[in-house]
Amino acid sequence: MWSHTFNKRVALGILTFACAASSLAYVPDDRWSTTTSGSTGNYGDPATLAWSLVPDGTRIPGEENSNLINYLDDLFNVSANSTDLTNRPWFSLVEESFTRWSDLSGLTFVYEPNDTGSSLETSSGVLGTRGDIRIGGAYLDGTNGTLAYAYLPDIGDLVVDTGETTFYSNSSNNYLQLRNVLMHEIGHALGLLHVESSSESLLMEPTINLSIDGPQLDEIRGIQGLYGDAYEKSNNGLGNGSYLRATDLGQLVSGGDLAIGTDATGGQTVLATESDFVSISESTDYDYYSFTIDAASLVDLTLTPLGGVFSQAVEGGAESAFDANSRNDLQLALYDTDGTTLLKLANETGLGGVEQLSNLELSSAGTYYARVSGSTSSMQLYELQLSAAALVLAETGDFNGDGLVDLADYTVWRNSLGDAGANLAADGNYDNLVNAADYAIWKNQFGSAASTGVVVGTTNVPESSSLVLLGIAALAITHTRLRRTTNRLD
Ligand SMILES: [Zn+2]
């Protein structure tokens, strides 16, 4: 056990440390299998982890006993007289370092205020007693060299070099130097190993990079591959894998659009303010999204695999181009308002290809469901975009879509008479041609207004044959929409 755990220790240093690992851009080692909250399931499943700060004097195997609390108090000029660490000015920096990882993934972190001071590395977490991830510190090698090190899951403990006073006392960018070290080591504690890239600046590089703040796109791929995206912990950890628990994207208005996963479109660099990243992590991972339209709409959905192409290698390996856009062949499905009736599936392209559902006619208001899934068990970031335009229910004769069948609709027909193509406003019989047959539909609908008694005065008559319509100008067509039983989807 000792040699095993020692091998799973990884360090962040000014110097480069060599270690062997498998070949994925983000180089995962393993994920937590059991935490203080129990079994964590499989790759892509969310997990809850507790973290604690070990009291000074706690044994750290191979080092002096921990002096981290006193070290940080000195660094921030705190005269400590309380065991409540949450009031320390440095506490929020530690907490933020965990929060950043949880904002980007299915992880939930809980601060465990208790820590019994049992030896680091060999004492697993116990709720109310000590955290899963325990943080201590000792003088490792003074200025430069190693900044900190961490153990991989299921140990996950962190040791900070309390000999790095100049480095950690730098307050620039809200103590970026301290936070990036903590976020890097937490990355190890969660199961990520080192990765190297000559083209990108990454948090999990063996040597600290201070041009970035926290996890970058490759590390977000890594953490979501292990624990899923942030929506996997929604619905009390049940995630969004069913239409009943769909992530609500909100109202899709005519002329408007909605999107999720958009922050992954900005290249490899991720700002600390960005957290809109979603992914498929497994072939069994289904991401459901709901959106609501308040009127019949013509809807477009676009699913774009993301991640970018960049140079990378495992630590000490030879770099090569890695195509993170092409990890998993995604599918896009649209379901009706019942959540289960498939309206249309898009699975036309292969790895790296965009899937689209274009010009879908959704004929009634309501909440619809889009489902994203993948064909293999590979992690794939993506963006889902939705847009809507007003859908003219041409078969009702309401060619201008204003909810009324009136002479204005005749004008639309007259002005587009002879036009050919898809989605023509006055193509009442959907034969992609505006002709006399469509006029007949309008006239018929208009005529039916007479029997309903819905009468509005008018002064125009389209043609002599419809003089009978004189005096009848408008009919609310709400009821005619119910006549439509099939969805035209192309
Ligand atoms: Zn490291």
UniProtKB/TrEMBL annotation:
The keyword ATP-binding does not apply. One of its GO terms (molecular function) is zinc ion binding. Residues 56-229 form the Peptidase metallopeptidase domain. GO terms for cellular component: extracellular matrix. The keyword Membrane does not apply. InterPro entries: Dockerin_1_rpt (IPR002105), Dockerin_dom_sf (IPR036439), EF_Hand_1_Ca_BS (IPR018247), MetalloPept_cat_dom_sf (IPR024079), Pept_M10_metallopeptidase (IPR001818), Pept_M10A (IPR021190), Peptidase_C_arc/bac (IPR007280), Peptidase_Metallo (IPR006026). Gene3D superfamilies: 2.60.120.380, Collagenase (Catalytic Domain), Dockerin domain. Keywords: Hydrolase, Metal-binding, Metalloprotease, Protease, Signal, Zinc. Residues 1-25 form the signal peptide. Its EC number is 3.4.24.-. Its cofactor is Zn(2+). One of its GO terms (biological process) is collagen catabolic process. Belongs to the peptidase M10A family. PANTHER family: MATRIX METALLOPROTEINASE, MATRIX METALLOPROTEINASE 1, ISOFORM C-RELATED. This is Matrixin family metalloprotease. It comes from Aeoliella straminimaris.
